[in-house]
Amino acid sequence: MSDVVQPRIALGVSYDGSAWQGWQKQPHGLTVQDTLEAALARFAGQPVPTVCAGRTDTGVHAAMQVIHLDAPVLRADTAWVRGVNAHLPPSIAIRWAREVSPDFHARFSARARSYVYLLLEDQVRSPLWAGKAGWSFYPLDVEAMQQAAGYLLGEHDFSSFRASQCQAKSPVRTLHRLDITRRGRFVVFSFTANAFLHHMVRNFVGALTYVGRGRESVQWMADVLAARDRRKGAPTFAPDGLYLTGVDYPAEFDLPLHDASDEIRFGV
């Protein structure tokens, strides 16, 4: 008897990371992947392993995470959305589902990822934005940060901005976009790269805020990048304001993707 081919399904997932210990499965079970796979198992009646486009850390949010799974049951796309969501807590939701070709891989097929970091600039912290935005009680010079950001664009060895526990084989990445804008009391950082190292975005934000508050010069950013030494940079910034907003794939996969950056930027 021939083996039954399991269709590969791609899912778009959003989550509020405040209550979760990151994406990746852990023995304690308090992660987004653990919770999502438990919901998938209840829906499908058996375990359903998943693969994501990019792991997010504790407290980091996703407006548009992408995962894939090999479905052990045949269900309509709408059933994967509504059926799985019925077993998920309010902080996690499937946004869309699409059957894809067997060669699709949520991580390795991705061409780029985009993140937004929201930073509240205020003398006093706001409990309404706790867990949803970073905070700086120092006034920040956006123009100086924009100038410093220019040194980071393009392909570089980003060793100065990777976590010590980063498991990536190479520290070389290509940063396509780094925009910094002010919206009222918020400074909004928007990043797009082919891929990111562990803590790379939060380390960027930490270094940029050093420039923005006048603690370091614009040129300092170039010096930190050239040093290829994490000890030369600024402390890793809080995860609260970090959102995975989009994953880019070749058009051949025909996914209903959009970059959710504007949803985050215009929400402040």
From TrEMBL:
Cross-referenced PANTHER family: PSEUDOURIDYLATE SYNTHASE, TRNA PSEUDOURIDINE SYNTHASE-LIKE 1
Bilayer-spanning residue ranges: none
InterPro entries membership: PsdUridine_synth_cat_dom_sf, PsdUridine_synth_TruA, PsdUridine_synth_TruA_a/b_dom, PsdUridine_synth_TruA_C, TruA/RsuA/RluB/E/F_N
Name listed for the protein in its UniProt record: tRNA pseudouridine synthase A
Source organism superkingdom: Bacteria
Gene Ontology terms for molecular function: RNA binding; tRNA pseudouridine(38-40) synthase activity
Gene designation: truA
Organism: Pigmentiphaga aceris
The keyword Ion transport is assigned to this record: no
Coiled coil ranges: none
Complexes and interactors: Homodimer.
Keyword entries, A-Z: Isomerase, tRNA processing
Active site positions, chain numbering: 57
GO biological process: tRNA pseudouridine synthesis
HAMAP family reported in the protein's UniProt record: TruA
Annotated ranges, domain Pseudouridine synthase I TruA alpha/beta: 14-108, 148-250
Keyword Cell membrane appears in the UniProt entry: no
Entry's family note: Belongs to the tRNA pseudouridine synthase TruA family.
Binding site for substrate: 115
UniProt function note: Formation of pseudouridine at positions 38, 39 and 40 in the anticodon stem and loop of transfer RNAs.
SUPFAM superfamilies the record matches: Pseudouridine synthase (SSF55120)
EC number: 5.4.99.12
Catalytic activity: uridine(38/39/40) in tRNA = pseudouridine(38/39/40) in tRNA
